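Researcher: Here's the sequence for the chain we discussed earlier.
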Amino acid sequence: MDLLLSALTVVSDLIDTLIRVPAHYVLFSIEYWLHAPVCRILCGIAIVSADYQLHAGFVISGLL
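Model: Thanks. This is the structure I predict for it:
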């Protein structure tokens, strides 16, 4: 349920920003559009996983 709420928050934020400031999205590069969904998917995997090594790897990769 938390993952669903997180996804809905991201989608509603994107729609809200597109309505209010369309020129803002011109500044985003392709890395943002690839990074955001991949990060959400990995967050979902980390939520349902109890593997300490996966969590540690996820945190370390996020810091890099």
